Backbone:
């Protein structure tokens, strides 16, 4: 029951209300444990609620608390039956009312006891779910758009919000966690993998990022294989081994008459076959027709030019084409389906599968020399498949490591003082590898990592302290080495460096070692790049992390 006391303004009315009858409703400050604040409850019991609660009156007459959740809960605990409440009529539009509630609660709480990081993220997610765009949420809550984008993702997940509150994850990692939980509907194995990452307890953000990349790769492959899966093919995300007897390629099989099977045989019984889709480089396509375009037919001098700029000698304007992954497709038959497909094993496959002696075997009909050649070929094919699986895993880890390393660089170079011995390292590095500034993409790497173009560096140095100027010098050198490490194509395979001095990446061992000395934890692929561990050891570590 409520009684009107006075009307301090045309919008609000001060009433006395029973706190037990107030509807606390939804609130951005979720999970409040008022019992954990006995001193606050005691104060309310002794003095009452000194600052009135703010509420809106719904169409059904109930009062929904907008500001004063803790005061209301404490009043209930203290046994009060009447507290002061400032009441106004609720906006008719329910969506507008919810948006109004969240923004009011967010801003009101931010001015007093801060909301937790998880509560902030939850409020952002709620506003986005109500249909506000990123810019409108940023304006309403007085936060950057970049924060809204990440918090909106993280706020969808209870686990991510909890990890934010416990300071176990950065906002970026919490957003990744929420994305992965969303993807679990299509990929049921993801939750167990997430649990293993947290159980492992180290490098959580790196491993979440690598898992996120792996899931994205699988989603891209699924999209590329959509035509095949729609026709009944099952999709393989990992290239299978054909040396164990579980899987067979087209070359491993023959018809019932002993003839090689036709290339389109899988199309005749798609429900029996699996398709493996993999990215094999990239290709150019026309944006409108989606037809493949020869790279020599593109005038790259028109890149970033207006559409009306005439390309050279009948070539295509660069704005009319785009580079996309080039997908390749390979078909495999599981041994459980071979009988249903009516196919037999090729003699060479029999020779490699049944351990026949070189003295001869009536099952395969091959001579000892043919049998030996068949086994050598099978071994070669299996080794190639294993190598492709290894390269795929290491390249994925390399891309994730690059992302993590550049985030570390941005943080390292945002400070006002350089790490200890930075100047000594710069002198030694430039005396030995002074040509590092000639690397392709040095300007791009500097801009990406520093958040401003290299051309701004002189002015920044003019206005900087001596210590900050040293950081700017360090930034120039480190970003040049980063450009050397990943090359002009922003490559992921720098793990090859230690064995071949791959792409002439001299000095990379010094660069990565300096980062490690400055606080960056080197990943297995980075360790392999500088020879601290072998490539096989790096692959074993990556495979163990992804298991």
Residues:
């Amino acid at each position: 029951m409520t009684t009107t006391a006075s009307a301090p303004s045309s919008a609000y009315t001060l009433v006395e209300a029973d706190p037990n009858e107030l509807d606390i409703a939804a609130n951005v400050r979720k999970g409040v444990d008022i019992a954990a604040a006995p001193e606050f409850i005691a104060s309310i019991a002794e003095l009452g609620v000194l600052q009135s609660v703010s509420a809106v009156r719904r169409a059904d007459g109930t009062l929904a608390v907008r500001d004063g959740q803790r005061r209301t809960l404490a009043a209930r605990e203290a046994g009060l039956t009447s507290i002061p409440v400032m009441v106004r009529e609720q906006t008719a539009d329910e969506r507008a009312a919810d948006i109004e509630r969240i923004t009011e609660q967010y801003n009101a709480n931010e001015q007093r006891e801060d909301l937790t990081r998880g509560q902030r993220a939850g409020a952002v997610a709620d506003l986005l779910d109500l249909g506000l765009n990123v810019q409108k949420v940023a304006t309403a809550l007085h936060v950057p758009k970049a924060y809204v984008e990440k918090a909106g993702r993280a706020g969808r997940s209870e686990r991510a919000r909890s990890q934010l509150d416990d300071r176990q994850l950065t906002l970026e990692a919490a957003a990744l966690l929420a994305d992965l939980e969303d993807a679990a509907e299509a990929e049921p194995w993801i939750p167990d993998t997430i649990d293993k990452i947290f159980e492992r307890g180290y490098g959580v953000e790196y491993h979440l990022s690598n898992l996120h990349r792996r899931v994205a790769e699988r989603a891209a492959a699924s999209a590329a294989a959509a035509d095949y899966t729609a026709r009944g093919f099952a999709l393989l995300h990992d290239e299978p081994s054909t040396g164990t007897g579980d899987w067979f390629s087209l070359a491993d099989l023959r018809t019932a008459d002993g003839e090689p099977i036709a290339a389109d045989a899988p199309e005749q019984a798609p429900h029996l076959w699996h398709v493996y889709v993999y990215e094999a480089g990239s290709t150019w396509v026309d944006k409108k027709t989606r037809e493949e375009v020869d790279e020599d037919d593109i005038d790259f001098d028109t890149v970033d030019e207006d559409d009306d700029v005439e390309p050279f000698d009948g070539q295509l304007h660069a704005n009319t084409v785009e580079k996309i992954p080039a997908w390749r497709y390979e078909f495999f038959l599981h041994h459980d389906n071979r009988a249903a497909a009516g196919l037999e094993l090729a003699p060479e496959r029999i020779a490699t599968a049944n351990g026949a002696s070189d003295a001869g075997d009536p099952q395969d009909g091959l001579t000892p020399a043919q049998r030996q050649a068949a086994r050598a070929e099978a071994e070669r094919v299996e080794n190639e498949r294993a190598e492709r699986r290894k390269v795929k895993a290491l390249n994925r880890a390399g891309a994730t490591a690059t992302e993590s390393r550049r985030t570390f660089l941005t943080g390292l170079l945002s400070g006002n003082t350089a790490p200890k011995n930075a100047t000594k390292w710069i002198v030694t590095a430039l005396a030995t590898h002074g040509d590092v500034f000639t690397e392709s993409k040095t300007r791009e790497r500097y801009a990406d990592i520093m958040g401003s173009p290299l051309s701004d560096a002189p002015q920044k140095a003019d206005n900087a302290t001596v210590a900050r100027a040293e950081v700017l010098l360090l930034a120039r050198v480190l970003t040049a080495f980063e450009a050397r490490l990943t090359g002009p194509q922003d490559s992921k395979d720098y793990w090859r460096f230690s064995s071949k001095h791959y792409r002439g990446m001299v000095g990379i061992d010094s660069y990565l070692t300096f980062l490690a000395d400055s606080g960056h934890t080197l990943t297995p692929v980075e360790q392999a790049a500088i020879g601290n561990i072998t490539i096989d050891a790096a692959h074993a570590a990556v495979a163990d992390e992804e298991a």
Summary: The radius of gyration is 32 Å. The longest strand covers residues 273-286. The mean pLDDT is 87. The longest helix spans residues 368-412.
